Amino acid sequence: MKKVFVFIGLVSLIFLLGACGSDGASGDGGSEAGVRTIEVAVPPAAKPLSYTENGELTGYEVEILRKVDEKLQDYEFHIVGVGDSAAEVGLDTGKYDLIAQGLFLSEEREEKYLIPSESNGASLMKIYTNEENKDIETLEDLVGKNIAPPNPSGGVFNFLTEYNEENPDNPIEFKTSDNGISYADRLKEVESGKYDALVLPSNLGQSEIIEQAGLKIHTTEPVKIFPTYFLIHKSEENEALNEEISKALAELKEDGTLSELSVKYYGEDVFQYE
Predict the structure, then answer these.
(1) Both ends of the chain: CA-CA distance in Å?
(2) Fewer CB atoms < 10 Å away: N or C end of the chain?
């Protein structure tokens, strides 16, 4: 009887080892063990780009990231909410593989990071005025006007400064402010006539603010278009990831998915300007 039990035990052990060996020998790259987790950082309160709703991250870029993730069989995105500056530091150190913040291209970024060949959207620089100033349509029309002060370290400041450098004989005069006034309050100041015009990228939720608050605001066509990109930590390992993301974004543009998400979150298709 003891020999029978020993025999049964040996058979069971052989079967177990065989099963384990079979699982580990797959080698097709499609198993869960072969899936690489990609750490992704997005702003937690930058509606409509990315924001938290009912405890979950959502928004334009968050939804794009999830669509891209669905197409990448060998990767799984772990998306977390992180402040802008902390996310950039984390990208530099490799804590995060990818960040999304509605980011523009620059020479510095192109040197420091891997950047997909396809944009994920566009930031449309527009001018917002009240009904009395709706004749303002271009940057040239802002000359001599009272402009709502931009943040001294922001993109609008850089944009207006660049314009003035290119037009030294006809510059736009403006002051700067970093007092943290909300976009809703800035638009209300324009409607009230405190300022003649406000220059802002259109992907900051203005259309929803204007509609919900019932503001009488005139919005121009884009005076400048800035394509936006994901930034990827620069490493040999991430080069393949960059190529896969570029391919996925191209497919999502081609099938209209990105345009649909743009209309959903921005109220317009930013890809019509490409």
Answers:
(1) 81
(2) N
User: 0.70 cut: is pTM over it?
Assistant: yes
Q: Which residues pair with 153 in a beta bridge?
A: none
pLDDT digit string (tens) for 101-148?
A: 999 888 999 999 999 999 999 999 999 999 999 999 999 999 999 999
CB 227 within 8 A of CB 236: no
Q: Please tell me the predicted confidence (pLDDT) of residue 155.
A: 83
Take residue 189 and report the two structure tokens written for it.
Answer: 């100041």
For 177, residues 6+ apart whose C-beta sits below 8 A from its C-beta are 149, 150, 151, 152
- CA dist 99 and 83 (Å) reads 11
**Distance between CA atoms of residues 181 and 98, nearest Å:** 29
Q: Which own/partner pairs from 166-174 qualify as long-range (CB within 8 Å, at least 24 positions apart)?
A: 170/140, 170/143, 171/143, 172/139, 172/142, 172/143, 172/145, 172/147, 173/143, 173/144, 173/147, 174/147, 174/149, 174/150
Residue 211 burial (10 A CB sphere; 0-12, 13-18, 19+): exposed
How far is residue 37's CA from residue 74's CA, in Å, rounded to a whole number? 9
Q: Is 234 exposed, middle or buried (0-12, 13-18, 19+ CB in 10 A)?
A: middle
> H or E stretch including 200?
strand 197-201
DSSP assignment letter at 31: S
DSSP element (H, E) containing 189:
helix 183-192
> Distance from CA of residue 174 to its chain's centroid?
28
